[in-house]
Write a structure and sequence with these properties.
Blueprint lengths: L10 H14 L13 E5 L11 H20 L2 E5 L1 E2 L3 H14 L4 H4 L1 H26 L9 E2 L3 H16 L3 E11 L4 E3 L4 E16 L6 E6 L10 E4 L13 E4 L4 E7 L11 E4 L5 H9 L26 H14 L3 E14 L7 E10 L2 H12 L4 E3 L3 H10 L4 E2 L1 E2 L9 E4 L5 E3 L15 E3 L3 E2 L1 H5 L2 H4 L8 H6 L2 E7 L3 H16 L4 E7 L2 E3 L15 H8 L1 H11 L6 E3 L1 H23 L16 H22 L3 H28 L5 H22 L4 H11 L19 H23 L8 E7 L2 H9 L1 H8 L1 E7 L9 E6 L5 E6 L7 H27 L1 H6 L2 H29 L2
Parallel strand pairs: 1-2, 3-4, 9-11, 15-23, 22-23, 24-25, 26-27
Antiparallel strand pairs: 5-6, 5-14, 7-8, 7-13, 9-12, 10-11, 14-16, 17-21, 18-19, 18-20, 26-29, 28-29
The structure holds one RNA strand.
RNA sequence: GGGCGGAUAGCUCAGAUGGUAGAGCGCAGCCCUUACAAGGCUGAGGUCACAGGUUCGAGCCCUGUUCCGCCUACCA
């Protein structure tokens, strides 16, 4: 088994091998019949248009860490993968491709177009799956789902029909957001608001009786042709005498009334507002209250229509310009002010959306939202971090009906059939023979498709086989956790909760872990146009997948955005290399035959220390992961591996490994090193699956992958020896510090003598003397008493055991720079005195002694004693140096 | 307009239930010591945004202020 590792870890050589092996061996395939406790997650399905970006990488790395961790803990893990058909986005992509061929979707026809999209899906759908596999995602790939699969489509139809029959889905003419580029309705959520600078135009509308005019303020003069009234506040005295009068709308010369509505803000503009129900949400409501008609002036491409008279055919922005010119000429513009306004844009194509009245399908959300609110209030479902619950409640409590129909071709066709012979609509899960109402065979399916998020909302149970009653549903629903970022809490999380409760009568997941959004090192959102994107695939290529994964984990502090700079990844690449070399070092000392387990009776202080530290690290990793604190877990591992295992333990046992201390010591240290390394690999495996499995395959006698290993058991710990070792380490630091401060060559042989007060400290140092010699390069460690305190020489103060202190003297004839040493000691003294006076001040307060808990007071007293001792020692040291 | 979050070392950030301010990176000095220069050792660096308050004690709790983000909203 003795093989040598290359000097540097080369990720590209091992990653592909392991990614393939894990899947081939079926490690990630969940078995509903396993007796183990279940742990399940559904992946947030990436779009089929997509290629892996950093958001995916983060999202899936964290899920994978959790999945692998739970698997090692002994859970029956199902992590179900899938992809999303992403209606509008995908349709846009395919349309663009067609455009390159000189084709439009209209030319192709619906059927042919949809065929093309499927073709495209086949080609590109695998891309992101392959990339997820490359990331190491331990999904159950045998259960891969797609939102347009037959099973999932069935679930969609089933839900639609049930909701429709319960009156929770309805169809009607309402004002909705319309994207004139995508040519479809959008839900409120799909509109993004942007602050832009524009103008506020003050328009004069003459009174019909010729007695004057009224001035309204608007940011959208082009919609005036669709005005059906001007509204004022009923309590606004300025306009009381105009009550009931009629205005003549300029240009088209249409007569419109002056109405009164309490919603009008008297303070804004002139206190009079034009009412355009066909192109403004607010006006739509006002018009309904007053039974006013609606006049649309634009068509579905947001061009002016026949109601726009002379402006017919113009684009809306073009029309605005021309209309303002005309009104100016006619003297109907009183003034124009600069104005900041927020405009809604389409979240898929950034086109300014146009509010329009049209016939659409809606989900009545009120009855669905109430149980969804309750579930979170009662703790059936938990947000992590908890603060996101507020955001959730805020939206849920003010939820509005959800427009679910889209005028596109790619998606789940609405399962509703219109009858040509009667007004009845037949809603059914399968194509009906004829009209339910009149029996006519002349029926036609609704041309619209459903909002993509409608099918996503069913994801946690549709993927498990619903509406069938499957084993999977019984075992794995509700899922254990959902990982996502905050930007889709409303889009997705909230809707899954509503649908899960409605159709499964239970929450879709117990925990929702909300992770950060990734930004660049300057905190800017990454975007292709800014050119600041970091491509995870390039990073994996350059630094290794494990390095990328570890970086993402370490940066995933709760409740904060992640600012990522490439140097961070490089840093964790170095960590991977460190681990690799630790393994390389370990292997160099392994015999050809399997190592025997070391006997606890033979453990050295260093052995006991590292086992104790390992136990602490193991505990931190486990509890941090339980609490979704990936950063804490990763940092703990980093610190343990690098700064405890490599920096101290390996260095401390080198003499043992060389056989300088006899065969037993050699065997024991080798054994402990190997054990700790092997168990550390298990702790690290969820974070860095590739390198850990690669190393494991070298050092373990078993062929199996770490995926099949259990999370390591905590070893025996030795607090007393561990504390002794810390004292020894501190003494070593003292000597090293003196060496560096006085510029003493490494080769120069030094001695050191220590002065301790407590017997326990002395014993610890005695027992650890060989470590001190080996690691600080001193020839001898001697002990002196107070009377023997040197008159001259330099020293440092180390921590003893139980609050004791140790003076570490290093005779350095010929090396001392008196000035430098005086400066150093004075600085140190100053610091100690500053702290001491703070502590003393505290202790001098009667109130503190009376009111603070006794153990705190005792701690302060101990600290005061320790600081005083330190101060005394420093003062004496200063004297000695001055005497030099 | 409402809401949420942030301001801690040069940079990026940790700092449960108030009790000695930490890490990574960067920086400086010294070291190619046969696991690793993608490395080792040592070190410098902080009025915890500001002003009050509660408390024996505040980075943490309360009030206010100033800057940043983000979410949300029917001020035309």
């Amino acid at each position: 088994m003795k093989r040598t590792l290359s000097k540097v870890y080369e990720p590209s050589k091992v990653e592909e091998k392991w990614a393939g092996l894990w899947i081939e061996r079926g490690y990630f395939t969940a078995d509903p019949h396993s007796g183990k406790p279940p742990f399940s997650m559904v992946i947030p399905p990436p779009n089929i248009t997509g290629s892996l970006h950093l958001g995916h990488a983060l999202n899936n790395t964290l899920q994978d860490i959790m999945a692998r961790f739970r698997r090692m803990e002994g859970y029956n893990v199902l992590w179900l993968p899938g992809i999303d058909h992403a209606g509008i986005a995908t349709q846009n992509v395919v349309e663009k491709k067609l455009l390159a061929e000189g084709l439009s979707r209209e030319e192709l026809g619906r059927e042919e177009f949809v065929k093309r999209v499927w073709q495209w899906k086949e080609e590109s759908g695998d891309t992101i799956i392959g990339q997820l596999k490359r990331l190491g995602a331990s999904c159950d790939w045998t259960r891969l789902r797609f939102t347009m699969d037959e099973g999932l489509s069935m679930a969609v139809r089933e839900v639609f029909v049930r909701l429709y029959r319960e009156g929770l889905i309805y169809r009607g003419d309402y004002i909705i957001n319309w994207c004139p580029r995508c040519m479809t309705a959008l839900s409120d959520l799909e509109v993004e608001h942007e602050e832009k600078s524009g103008s506020l135009y003050y328009l004069k509308y003459p009174l019909k009786d010729g007695t004057g005019s009224i001035t309204v303020a608007t940011t959208r003069p082009e919609t005036m042709l669709g005005d059906v009234a001007v509204a004022v506040n009923p309590e606004d005295e300025r306009y009381s005498k105009l009550r009931g009068k009629t205005l003549v709308l300029p240009i088209v010369e249409r007569e419109i009334p002056i109405i009164e509505d309490p919603a009008v803000d008297r303070e804004f503009g002139t206190g009079a507002v034009k009412i355009t129900p066909a192109h403004d949400f607010n006006d739509f409501e006002v018009a309904r209250r007053h039974s006013l008609p609606s006049v649309a002036v634009m068509d579905e491409r947001a061009g002016m229509n026949e109601n726009a008279g002379p402006y017919r055919g113009l684009d809306r922005f073009e029309a605005r310009k021309k209309m303002v010119e005309e009104l100016k000429e006619k003297g109907l513009i009183e003034r124009v002010e600069d104005y900041r306004l927020s405009v809604g844009t389409c979240y898929r194509c950034r086109t300014v959306v146009e509010p329009m009245v049209s016939k659409q399908w809606f989900v009545r959300t009120g009855p669905l939202s109430r149980p969804a609110i309750k579930a979170v209030e009662e703790g059936a479902l938990r947000f992590v971090p908890k603060s996101w619950e507020k955001t959730y409640f805020e939206w849920m409590r003010n939820i509005r009906d959800w427009c679910i129909s889209r005028q596109i071709w790619w998606g789940h066709r609405i399962p509703a059939w219109h009858c040509k012979d009667c007004p009845h609509i037949t809603v059914a899960t399968t194509t009906p023979e004829g009209c339910e109402g009149c029996g006519s065979k002349d029926i036609e399916q609704d041309p619209d498709v459903l909002d993509t998020w409608f099918s996503s909302a069913l994801w946690p149970f549709s993927t498990l086989g619903w509406p069938e009653d499957t084993e999977e549903l019984r075992v794995f629903y509700p899922t254990s956790a959902l990982f996502t970022s905050f930007d889709i809490i409303f889009f997705w999380v909230a809707r899954m909760i509503m649908m899960g409760l409605k159709f499964m009568e239970d929450v879709p997941f117990r925990d929702v872990y909300i992770h950060a959004l990734i930004r660049d090192a300057q905190g800017q959102k990454m975007s292709k146009s800014k050119g600041n994107v970091i491509d995870p695939l390039v990073m994996m290529e350059r630094y290794g997948t494990d390095a990328l994964r570890f970086t993402l984990a370490v940066l995933a502090a709760q409740g904060r955005d992640i600012k990522l700079a490439e140097e961070r990844i490089e840093g964790y690449r170095n960590f991977a290399n460190k681990l690799w070399n630790l393994a390389r070092f370990t292997m160099m000392h392994l015999e050809d035959k399997p190592a025997e387990s070391p006997r606890p009776d033979d453990y050295s202080v260093a052995d006991k220390w590292i086992l104790t530290r390992f136990k602490a690290c193991r505990g931190q990793v486990a509890s941090a992961l339980d609490a979704y604190q990936f950063d804490v877990a990763a940092k703990s591992l980093y610190g343990f591996v690098w700064h405890e295992l490599c920096d101290w333990y390996v260095e401390a046992i080198k003499p043992d490994l060389k056989g300088e201390k006899g065969e037993t010591r050699k065997k024991t240290s080798t054994g402990v090193l190997l054990t700790v390394l092997a168990d550390t690999l298990k702790l690290l495996h969820p974070f860095m699956p590739f390198i850990t499995d690669e190393i494991h395959s070298y050092i373990s006698e078993r062929e199996e992958s770490l995926v099949k290993e259990g999370f390591p058991q905590p070893p025996e710990s030795y607090p007393e020896e561990a504390s002794n070792m810390e004292t020894v380490m501190d003494v070593i630091r003292c000597v090293r510090n003196i060496r560096v401060e006085f510029n003493i060559p490494n080769r120069a042989e030094l001695e050191c003598v220590v002065l301790t007060r407590k017997e326990a400290t002395k014993r610890a140092i005695e027992e650890g003397a060989h470590y001190i010699k080996a690691l600080s390069g001193v020839k001898e460690v001697g002990f002196i008493t107070e009377e023997e305190r040197p008159r001259k020489g330099v020293f440092n103060v180390a921590r003893g055991v139980e609050g004791d202190t140790v003076e570490v003297f290093v005779p350095i004839r010929g090396y001392v720079d008196v000035e430098a040493e005086l400066g150093r000691l004075e600085r140190e003294l100053e610091k100690v005195e500053r702290e001491l006076s703070a502590v003393k001040k505290r202790l001098s307060k009667e109130n503190f002694l009376k009111k603070a808990p006794p153990e705190v007071v005792e701690k302060e007293r101990g600290r005061s004693r320790e600081l005083e001792e330190r101060r005394e020692r420093l003062l004496k040291g200063l004297e000695r140096v001055r005497a030099l």
